[in-house]
Automatic annotation (TrEMBL):
InterPro entries: GH, GH39_cat, Glyco_hydro_39, Glycosyl_Hydrolase_39. Residues 35-531 form the Glycosyl hydrolases family 39 N-terminal catalytic domain. It comes from Spirosoma soli. It comes from the Bacteria. This is Beta-xylosidase.
Length: 569
């Protein structure tokens, strides 16, 4: 019935067009479909769940009402454990949550300077993850007030209209005593093993700090390297099989970042260890960040996916230049369209992409290119952290970079639900498409739309994610798309077509249709929650397979995303 209504609507729109503009030319009336070929016989290796990684600044949101709800939803969308990264796990304070702030009070000292360890809040955070089958990316930072070389001022109070640099206070400084810092790390890892078990903690990633090449670290690069040696030594003393890594620099394509990253990797390979005096340091995985750079151009948001991909590619290039490190797991610790999740749309109009489907289509298109970039550089990408979570008790759809607002899922979360259905191995996608990973990296998407696909298969299922993305968030006609899936080992397939666009899987548009209520009623909230789930475009249907090929034709709106799931017996 829904499909029939859509056909009638399309027919109605065509009739209105005739009445207003007169007859269309043949070319205008029947635009040539974008042809996408998916070849199930061309295997590209495992479909690594690089998307199943999330993070956020405010660790105390983890166990609050909407935080727990969202973590449950994230855990359910994936058939593999989701990895979660949060800042400020060692920051001094009472655990009060605020924008770009969090604290656990894990370390304080008595009047004589003796350490006092309190893992109550840290445990509360990690318990929330473990209960949902999630894996912590245990970020070792930031500096407790009692250990900071410049402890005052320590607690900052930041809001979206404030200067970003105001957040870098006493928690960002090196320790006044590296041995006390090392003992803190040792005690944390030891406590974790006692609480969760050796096997569980072995599955975590222990990383040092965040973006030490900018304000998050008020020491020198050499002081960070020294801190890393003391940290890695402590982790390995507590649990020799634990995984430890870094350096979490931001923007490797930036010269200062590349210099920092190379200095760190040079030390790991051939430097003199500050703790042992031996050559090199333990390194089990490598981390860096990559961000885009949206702007407002002629009154509309213009994204810059190319910048993010260039950061990623440069990071891969740097890692690949170290023969002994090239095959280490790489985690892009933050991988996003821009840099500040808590910078809301009302103060930062370039972030107006976040509530609607532009964030969805950007996510689909950019993640597909991360696979291609890793393959081209021959490196081992295991995860790309989406730095987006939720912000408790904020106005509805304020325009934060988040996955949900007041407990209601936003369209972007449905892309990850789509990814969660893509299993098995990646397969080849081709047929004269306007963009490949290299062109998006070098030029971004400024000419025609990027209409492309990512596909996977297992024994009895194939999935094809198709997006219609453009850097410019301006209206454009929907595009006809023709997907041909080759190598299907059956005579018919069941097709389920999931969609994210203005009508489907979109709580934001539903909220606007309600009149954008500032305080939705319980009935409205229930309706928004339903609209926030991933939805089918129409009823599942069986289609014939001819010569091992299945043909699927549909229209895809600008900034829309489709997932085609084909199942056979």
């Amino acid at each position: 019935m829904r499909a029939r209504i859509h056909r009638l609507l399309h027919a109605g729109l065509y009739t209105v067009t005739l009445l207003i503009h007169g007859p269309l030319s043949a070319q205008e009336a029947q635009p040539k479909p974008v042809a996408i070929d998916v070849d199930l016989a061309k295997d590209k290796g495992p479909m690594k769940p690089i998307w199943a990684w999330f993070g956020y600044d405010e660790p105390n949101y983890t166990y609050m009402k909407d935080g727990k709800k969202l973590l449950t939803e994230i855990s359910k969308l994936s058939k593999v454990p989701v990895n979660v990264r949060a800042h400020s796990l060692l920051v001094t304070g009472d655990g009060t949550a605020a924008l770009k702030w969090g604290s656990t009070n894990a370390y304080t000292e008595d009047k004589k300077g003796n350490p006092i360890y309190d893992w109550t809040i840290v445990d509360k955070i990690f318990d929330t993850y473990i209960e949902r089958g999630m894996k912590p990316i245990a970020q070792i930072g930031f500096m407790p007030e009692a250990l900071s070389t410049k402890p005052q001022p320590y607690r900052h109070n930041w809001s979206p209209g404030d200067k970003y640099n105001d957040i870098y206070t006493g928690w960002a400084y090196p320790p006044k005593d590296y041995k006390k810092w090392s003992e803190l790390v040792y005690q944390w890892v030891t406590h974790s093993v006692q609480r969760y078990g050796k096997q569980e903690v072995e599955s975590w990633y222990w990383e040092l700090w965040n973006e030490p090449n900018i304000g998050y670290w008020k020491g020198t690069p050499e002081e960070y390297i020294k801190l890393y040696d003391y940290t890695a030594d402590a982790v390995k003393r507590a649990l020799p099989t634990a995984k430890v890594g870094g350096p979490e620099v931001t923007g490797p394509a930036w010269e200062v970042s590349e210099k920092f990253m190379r200095a760190f990797l040079d030390h790991v390979v051939s430097g003199t260890n500050y703790v042992t005096g031996k050559t090199g340091s333990p390194l089990d995985f490598i981390t860096f960040h990559a961000k885009g750079d949206p702007k407002v151009v002629n009154g509309a948001v213009q994204m810059n996916m190319g910048k993010q991909l260039r950061d990623i590619d440069k990071g891969f290039e740097i890692v690949a230049s170290y023969p002994t490190l090239k095959q280490l797991p790489i985690i892009i610790g933050e991988s996003d369209p821009e840099g500040c999740a808590a910078c809301s749309e009302d103060f930062h109009p370039q972030n107006a992409y976040r509530n609607g489907t532009m964030y969805s289509s950007y996510t689909a298109a950019s993640f597909a290119r991360k696979y291609d970039l890793a393959e081209a550089r021959g490196v081992n990408l295991v995860g790309a952290v989406t730095w987006a979570f939720e912000f408790e008790d904020q106005p509805w759809f304020r325009g934060f970079r988040d996955l949900a607002t007041n407990g209601v899922d936003k369209p972007v979360l449905n892309v990850f639900r789509m990814f969660g259905m893509m299993e098995g191995n990646r397969v080849a996608v081709s047929n004269g498409l306007a963009y490949d990973y290299a062109k998006v990296r070098d030029e971004s998407v400024r000419k025609g739309a990027d209409i492309n696909a990512l596909a996977s298969k297992n024994a009895q299922t194939a999935t094809v994610m198709v997006w219609n993305y453009h850097d410019d968030n301006v209206p454009a006609p929907a595009a006809p798309v023709s997907v041909t899936v080759k190598g299907v080992p059956a005579t018919k397939v069941l097709v389920e077509h999931y969609r994210i666009d203005r009508q489907f899987s979109n709580s934001y548009e539903a909220w606007k249709r309600m009149g954008s209520p500032k305080s939705p009623t319980a009935e409205q909230v229930a309706e928004l929650e339903k609209a926030g789930q991933l939805q089918l475009l129409g009823s599942p249907e069986w289609i014939p397979v001819k010569n091992s090929q299945a043909a699927l034709n549909f229209t895809l709106p600008r900034q829309g995303v489709s997932l085609l799931k084909l199942t056979w017996q």
